[in-house]
């Protein structure tokens, strides 16, 4: 008896799943056969879940970032930073992920604090200096009240594949606190005092 009921259940289930009537015809139009389409509806609770997952990823990954070597030319020489990394990160208390119909997401984070450290090398020249003066040492900087806003659109390529397109990105830094060390006693004093 139970065996017959199980066979009937699986036979009915198999016909429901394998039937072509269960596939929307919209999925068969305007797409490439090698890249099927997907129709999705986002609810506020789903967007909130996506926002929380996104913040968890940011919080977990930001301390793993290795910053690239940066070289800047200034009026009196050149400054380079290298071997830089994020040493501490305070998660933003204000963050949001909003859907802007029909196809855009806006991610905002505010009041973040980031501490970075690394090595620097500077070469100063000037009218009062006979030769170029090199300075090397370590730095530690705190970026406070950092705000970041970025917007992306979900679009299709010519082949019909989904693509994420960046439409807007802005970062604001409230303040920067810089400390240097191991450049020499006098140099450390002057740089840290008159920054």
UniProtKB/TrEMBL annotation:
Signal peptide start and end residues: 1-19
Any single Gene Ontology cellular-component annotation: extracellular space
Keywords recorded for this protein, A-Z: Signal
Xref: InterPro entries: Bactericidal_perm-incr_a/b_dom, BPI/LBP/Plunc, Lipid-bd_serum_glycop_N
Positions of transmembrane segments: none
Any one GO MF annotation of this record: lipid binding
Gene3D superfamilies: Bactericidal permeability-increasing protein, domain 1
Domain Lipid-binding serum glycoprotein N-terminal: 46-195
Protein name as annotated: BPI1 domain-containing protein
């Amino acid at each position: 008896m139970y065996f017959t009921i199980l066979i009937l259940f699986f036979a009915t289930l198999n016909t429901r799943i394998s039937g072509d009537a269960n596939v929307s015809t919209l999925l068969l139009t305007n797409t490439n056969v090698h890249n099927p389409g997907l129709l999705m509806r986002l609810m506020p609770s789903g967007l909130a879940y996506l926002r929380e997952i996104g913040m968890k990823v940011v919080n977990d990954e930001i301390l793993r970032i290795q910053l690239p070597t940066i070289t800047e030319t200034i009026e009196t020489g050149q400054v380079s930073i290298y071997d830089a990394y994020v040493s501490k990160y305070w998660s933003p208390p204000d963050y949001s992920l909003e859907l802007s119909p029909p196809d855009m997401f806006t991610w905002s984070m505010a009041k973040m604090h980031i501490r970075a450290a690394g090595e620097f090398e500077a070469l100063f020249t000037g009218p009062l200096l006979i030769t170029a003066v090199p300075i090397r040492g370590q730095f530690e900087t705190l970026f406070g009240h950092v705000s970041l806003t970025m917007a992306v659109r979900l679009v299709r390529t010519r082949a019909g594949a989904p693509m994420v397109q960046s439409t807007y990105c802005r970062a604001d830094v409230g303040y920067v606190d810089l400390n240097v060390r191991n450049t020499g006693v006098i140099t450390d004093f002057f740089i840290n005092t008159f920054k």
